[in-house]
Amino acid sequence: MESYLLTEQDRSTLQSKVTNKLREVILTGHFNMGDRLVQEEWADKLGVSRMPIREALVQLEKEGLVRIEPRRGAIVTPISVEDIKEIYQLRVLLEGEAVERALPYIEEEDIKELSRLDSMMRSLGNTEEDVEIYMRLNIEFHHILRRGCPWRRIHDMIDTLWKGIPPYTPSLLADHLEETHKEHGLMIEGIKQRDAKKLRKVIERHILRTRDNLIEVILEAEKETNRSGSKDF
Q: What is the rounded end-to-end Cα distance, in angstroms, of the chain?
């Protein structure tokens, strides 16, 4: 039986840890569509009270991973491989367009901030706390890349696509962060060169590579679950 019990160090950032644990088990295939995620059971599994479980479920509902129903509680609605393909293909189309249109509005201060964020991300290790910091920095990095785009609606659409999996992929793809560092460096280089086509190409390749890595992780987790023949925790 796999243990999900949190350590004392984990408890220092309890809410975030609980949310990450529940997100991870949903994304890696431990639940089927329509399964109930019972608060009392997961409080026992993680060694916490029900309060952080309830708060985590509120966040996971916003991400589309659970649905809270009266009298039934949290119903799992895991994101499928097809969902991943849809989200990331739309990101390619929209973010590629947005960063290309944002480039004329990116100023020297923005470039300095992107470089600072890039350096900070490269300096982080692979602990859970480091990965959480990385996720926040990565969100800010991508926001700066496109915030100068004058098209208001494209921002709304991209923000919708980011409400779910994209912000949390570093926690699932820690083995691929070196590739991400290289791609971030190429993005900054494209900006400095004022090469819109190069910047767009790097962004699109970055999104598609992340998509493929994420699908690989999900499929491998499904295989592991099938080999074990059980969803016991």
A: 6
Which positions ≥6 away from 125 have C-beta within 8 Å? Answer: none
- Residue 167 DSSP code: G
Q: Rounded CA gap, 99 and 103, in Å?
A: 6
Residues 3, 14: Cα–Cα separation, whole Å: 17
Q: How far apart are CA 109 and CA 112, in angstroms?
A: 5
The per-type count for the chain, helices as H runs and strands as E runs, is 10, 3
pLDDT tens-digit profile of 41-93? 999 999 999 999 999 999 888 888 899 998 889 999 878 889 899 999 999 99
How much of the chain exceeds pLDDT 70, in percent? 91
204 residue type, one letter: E
Q: What is the dihedral of CA 92, 93, 94, 99, to 10 degrees?
A: 70
- CA 193, CA 106: separation in Å to the nearest integer? 12
Alpha-carbon distance of 18 to 11, in angstroms, equals 9
Task: Give the span between the Cα atoms of 49 and 18, in whole angstroms.
Answer: 11
| Gap between the Cα atoms of 9 and 220, Å rounded | 29
- In three-state secondary structure terms, 233 is coil
Domains and their CATH numbers in the chain: 10-78 (1.10.10.10), 81-220 (1.20.120.530)
